[in-house]
Amino acid sequence: MNAESLFDRLFLSERAAQVAVLYDHSEITYQQLHNLTLRTAESLNAIGIRGGDRVGILLQDSPEFIASFVAIISLGAIAVPINLALRREDQRFILKDCGACAAIIEAKAAETLFEPSDIRADLKNLLVVRRHEAKLCLP
């Protein structure tokens, strides 16, 4: 298949300096979002995420959400966005029901989503996103 990937279409070199996202009173450029997406893909690759794996995303609407979604599908895995406004029981149900082997989750949500006995053997990795209160840190 010769079709351009979403990654390639999003991160055209001529867009690098343009603003891609406005978030928390900051402008995030395509280059910054590109770098964040690559780091996310590298982290997912390092924990063994492969094509067809399901990865839950429990993140706020944020640059990290965009980077996570694009990184997951760029690896051929299946992104499973889960609404943070759902009850914790519903979030856990979706993670278990979809067969997620990993999840990318807000630090605050990770603190309350799981009890030690809740984590099933098929959810092997949690990637936790921590933000500074004042400002998002990007390269």
Task: Report on the architecture of this protein.
The chain is of the alpha/beta class and 139 residues long. It contains 5 helices and 6 strands. It has helices at 6-10, 30-46, 63-74, 88-98, 107-113; strands at 19-23, 26-29, 54-58, 78-81, 102-106, 125-129. The strands form 2 sheets. It has a 4-stranded parallel sheet with strand order 4-3-5-6. A two-stranded antiparallel ribbon has the order 1-2. Helix 5 links the parallel strand 5 (102-106) and strand 6. Helix 2 (30-46) packs across helix 3. The longest helix has 17 residues, at 30-46.
Mind sketching the topology for me?
Elements: H1 6-10, E1 19-23, E2 26-29, H2 30-46, E3 54-58, H3 63-74, E4 78-81, H4 88-98, E5 102-106, H5 107-113, E6 125-129
Parallel strand pairs: 3-4, 3-5, 5-6
Antiparallel strand pairs: 1-2
Helix pairs in contact: 2-3
